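tool_log.txt
---
The assistant was asked to compare two proteins side by side. It first ran the structure predictor on the initial sequence, then on the second. Raw inputs and outputs are pasted verbatim so the downstream comparison step can read them without reformatting.
(1)
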Amino acid sequence: MVARLEDQLLGAAAGARRGVQAAVEPARARPVGADMFDLHPPFQIDGNFGGVSGITEMLLQSHASEVHLLPALPAAWPEGSFRGLRARGGFEVDLSWAGGALTGGRVRSPLGGTLTLRTASPVTVTAHGRPVPGSRPEPGVIVVETRQGAVYDLTPAS
């Protein structure tokens, strides 16, 4: 069952990438300029922000009280990084990946509170170089209590 679910997620990632690619390629019926703004009148802000939203959701999702890192990373993006994406709960996330897998990250917690992270592979959460205690209610999920203003580093678990 897990293998079928992983196949569905990988298929969804490829489909999401194709959808975003179709939306931003200038040769399409809905052309987009080099600045990523729609080129057709009338000006439609939803078209301008839709592509950005789609890309963001492929890299980070924060629904159901959890932050899901790289939930739909397409094979066409084997390595990369982002900085400053916001998640529910006020968390700010920086992340890097290579070979399609998370290589490191940082979560800033300006508000404090519970952080539930979901990843494809287990991660270790540290603050000031020390492991942060947390629970692992299921594979690929870690729950930690964060302090207001604290910064947490993420590394793949060994």
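(2)
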Amino acid sequence: MQNHTTRPRPVYHLGNAEHAEDLIRAVGEAFDVRWLSQHGTHRIGSVWARRDPLASSELVCFGSALVRVRDLAPGWLKKTVRRIKKSPADAHGLISEILTFGQLSVPDGSLELAVDSQPGFDAIAHHGNGWKHFISVKNHDISDKEKQFQQAGRRIRKAWQNRIGLEKRSGGVVVISQVPFEAHHEAAVVELLKSECAPDGRRLLFDEAIYVSWGGPYNHIQPLSTARLSDHIVVVAAQPTSEQDRFKTGLRKAIQQIEKHTPNEPNTCRIVHMRVHESADLGLLEALANELAAQPAYAVDGVFLLQPSLLHDAVSSQVLHTVRMGGAGRKFIQFAQSRAGSHTTPYTYQFGVGALSDKPSQIQLSGPLGSSVTLHPHSYVFQQGDYYVDATPGKGGVLEANISTPAPGIAIHAVARIQGGEFVIQPLSPESDRLYLL
């Protein structure tokens, strides 16, 4: 990963540039810029090292939460930052607590953070009508299975780049697997791309469970440069059943823990606040929470599901914060009834950057002629590509070119020829459009 520490951070897309820079500066002050610069392999350090718009958006979101938690509980924040710096590789749960407490507000009351190592819950929300909510914060990050899938995608792309490098032509590959993508599937796809002589074609593998298509590039907007090879790869595969099972297991465990360690008293509620990876099916988790709420032994009063993701189209991208609630128990309904006539909501969210939605984003694959297909929510997707176009003289002899990131993982670069030399102008884009902090 390149560390362009001398390049200014892009904040043009964040509205008030001065405010955005203040929030990014708050991250540096909390964790120490020197420490962040020396620890570029963990989440905060890796995002801090980047100089692309998505990294700026994540840092502003995180900085906004830091500032609010600093005002709410400065002692708690200092201890938490020390714990993160002591063990940064295992700190995403602590990062999620900072984000949650910095984004969640109680309009008619206050939020009290629990002491260190408090079992069962992480905060108490004191509401204006005298009710207390014990809140347990849980985080479920990317799974090892999805990490392995992403690594397989990179290896397939490398094999394809080697082939088109030998053939000196640009091209793309699409792999669609109706079954979970395992090591032997990857090996077969790589072998096919190495051994197949035809410049383009299609093949079905493993009893038609895996479709492979290869050939020319998929960019039909503008002519490609002959000075650089362009490549594009898409791999889509069904998730293993363990992917959604782990989210459901996590929800059940969180309910058991908060039930075990919090009192079931009048005018109190037990709330699970669960931040999940973008691969989670929110509808499935909400249905599970509602199913559990219908059982007589259900002792939790509500489940808040929060799923950050990146909403990307051909024109722009933004962070999307999807919030859903399920599993409203009898006492939460009593709490809501006690607030009848109130002019405020029980909770509000302030994310710093991005849009709030109650509907998760969908993954769509676009075809070469503008058609698109929406993927099943239980899908893994890997996409990377680099397209190179020639910069052309415009008015006054100024070179012009469209450099952009039209889709997740895809970048369009410009090749400029000046005084006999060639220069590549790159867009400010990350290698992956995945959220690392949020």
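---
observation on (2): The chain has a mean pLDDT of 87. The chain is about 35% helix and 25% strand.
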